[in-house]
Amino acid sequence: MTTLYDIPAELLNPALAARLEETKSVSTPDWAEFVKTGVDRERPPSQANWWFLRSAAILRKVAREGPVGVTHLAQAFGGRKDNGASPNTPGVASRHIIRTSLQQLEESGLVSKVLGRMVEDENGDPLQLFKGRQITPAGQKMIDSVAHECRPAAEEMYPGLSKY
Questions:
Q1: What residues contact 101, with CB distance under 8 A and at least 6 apart?
Q2: Structural domain of 105
Q3: Count: domains in the chain
Q4: Could you give the CA distance from residue 52 to residue 14 in angstroms, rounded to a whole number?
Q5: Is the residue at 3 inside a domain?
Q6: Which CA distances in Å does 129 have to 3, 21, 30, 54, 86?
Q7: What is the pLDDT of residues 6-27, one digit of tens each?
Q8: How far are the Cα atoms of 3, 36, 74, 138, 144 from residue 71, in angstroms, in the given order?
Q9: pLDDT for 44-93, tens place per residue?
Q10: Does residue 140 fall inside a structural domain?
């Protein structure tokens, strides 16, 4: 069976975005057409389906590296911030976009939170911490089925892939 590790991201992400859009697992918020995707960007995205592409990329990253948190994903999706005459520094992606997308994926049952340790807050009350989010079996099934559908295109693009 083909898994997400067998298919390159440039083939898997658009197909996974189309699957998320057709199953209505993720919906574009009203504010999505006005926001930048990170501090290193100058303008909002120009693609019409950018929300679905970002959600698919987030789902793939959670499946590959999970459990993973919002800050880790913001650093992974960031770029290089232009500081003018000063050297460029790493720019992080928008945490609000990543958090909202993860919440939508969690509501649809594709991602779940991983419980961490219990701590006490400043009032002495117990507080549950989380390690991040990981893929659920339903999410893994969706990704693997999309990867299996993308396998012929991947073999056509990369002929040596057929022996694996």
A1: 26, 51, 54, 55, 58
A2: 9-163
A3: 1
A4: 8
A5: no
A6: 31, 32, 30, 26, 38
A7: 888 999 999 999 999 999 989 9
A8: 26, 17, 5, 24, 26
A9: 888 889 999 999 999 999 999 989 999 999 999 988 888 889 898 888 89
A10: yes
Cis geometry, peptide bond prior to residue 90 (ω within 30 degrees of 0): no
Report the SS3 class of residue 57. helix
Count CB neighbours of 131 within 10 A.
14
- Domain contains 1: no
Distance CA 131, CA 68 (A): 7
* Whole-prediction pTM: 0.88
Distance CA 93, CA 79 (A): 8
Spatial separation of the C-alpha atoms in residues 25 and 30, rounded to whole Å = 16
CATH number, domain at 113? 1.10.10.10
- Residue at 133 is within a domain: yes
Using alpha carbons only, give the angle 58, 21, 51 rounded to the nearest 5 degrees.
Answer: 45
Q: Which two tokens stand for residue 140?
A: 């893994």
* Closest alpha carbon to 89 in 97, 100, 80, 98: 80
Beta-carbon contacts of residue 112 (< 8 Å; ≥ 6 apart): 106, 133, 134, 136
Q: How far apart are CA 121 and CA 127, in angstroms?
A: 6
Side chain identity at residue 139, one-letter code: G
